[in-house]
Specification:
This is ABC transporter ATP-binding protein. InterPro entries: AAA+_ATPase, ABC_transporter-like_ATP-bd, MacB-like_ATP-bd, P-loop_NTPase. Keywords: ATP-binding, Nucleotide-binding, Transport. GO terms for molecular function: ATP binding. Helix content is 34%, strand content 25%. It is of the alpha/beta class. The two termini are 25 Å apart. The C terminus is likely disordered. The structure holds adenosine-5'-diphosphate (2 copies). One adenosine-5'-diphosphate binds next to strand 2 and helix 1.
């Protein structure tokens, strides 16, 4: 069973001029896939992520995550679905400035009411693997951008979500930090089989993906496979 299925999704923003931000988009992600989405500004990438994340409703079509239809849930169930099944990573990190790195990482577990000792153990183990152990007790303003994004990766993955959605995760980072962050994604993808969907403008970041989908004017128009699945266009 696919982790994610986007089925014939369209999104029209009505206004003085109506915009077809998504035009009959369909694709599926299998467990453990690391897939990129690339396309020019205004091509529908954010809308697509928002529709998958249930932040935005498709005008038509459906999204299926692990056999569930999140858009058919009520608001409360939808919020729970997002918390349980999804992990989010953003360009601007979106860490909470008043919490330490460790407190940020365990936030999804705190919301689930996990025991403190268990949370500390999980965050330490993840922080070691992501090489941010030495900054666990610092605040986000005291660490580098690369460390902030690895903190965000730890937070997005600590509760083992079905699907991680990343929006331009290297958009704010220099080359060295981008490399560290993409290697962190790659490691989590390989070792935990975390399924990742990543929007990016960055060819270097896209080179870590198994597969890249290209979108333009709200339509998927091309797909490139890498590595074991190598196929020409
Ligand atoms: P990016 O190119 O980084 O994805 P955009 O500048 O396209 O970001 O959009 C940023 C935010 O503004 C998105 O959440 C999007 O939904 C919203 N947005 C984009 N275009 C419009 C618009 N014409 N009217 C209202 N909101 C918009
Ligand atoms: P991208 O993320 O690829 O930059 P978006 O998904 O943000 O693209 O936008 C796709 C199209 O939909 C653009 O033409 C944008 O202006 C429009 N759009 C996005 N969000 C809104 C909105 N909330 N209201 C109206 N138009 C929007």
């Amino acid at each position: 069973m696919a982790v994610l299925e986007v089925r014939e999704c369209s999104k029209i923003y009505e206004g003085t001029i109506s915009t077809r931000a998504l035009d009959n988009v369909s694709f599926a992600l299998e467990r453990g896939e690391f897939v990129g989405i690339m396309g020019p500004s205004g091509s529908g990438k954010t809308t697509l992520l928002n529709v998958i994340a249930t932040i935005d409703e498709p005008t038509s079509g459906d999204v299926v995550v692990e056999g569930q239809h999140p858009h058919k849930l009520d608001l409360e169930e939808m919020a729970l679905f997002r918390r349980r099944e999804l992990g989010f990573i953003f360009q601007h990190f979106n860490l909470l400035d008043t919490l330490t790195v460790e407190e940020n990482i365990v936030l999804p577990l705190t919301l689930d009411g996990a025991p403190v000792a268990e949370m500390k153990k999980s965050s330490l183990e993840l922080a070691r693997r992501l090489d941010i152990e030495s900054v666990l007790h610092k605040f986000p303003q005291e660490i580098s951008g690369g460390q902030m994004q690895r903190t965000a990766i730890a937070r997005a993955m600590i509760h083992h979500p079905s699907l991680v959605l990343a929006d331009e995760p290297t958009g704010n980072l220099d080359s060295k930090a981008s490399k560290d962050v993409m290697e962190a994604f790659g490691m989590m993808n390989r070792e935990e089989r975390t399924t990742i969907l990543m929007v990016t403008h960055d060819a270097f970041a896209a080179s870590f993906c198994h597969r890249v989908l290209f979108i333009k004017d709200g339509r998927l128009y091309n797909e490139i496979y890498r590595g074991e699945n190598r196929q020409a266009f």
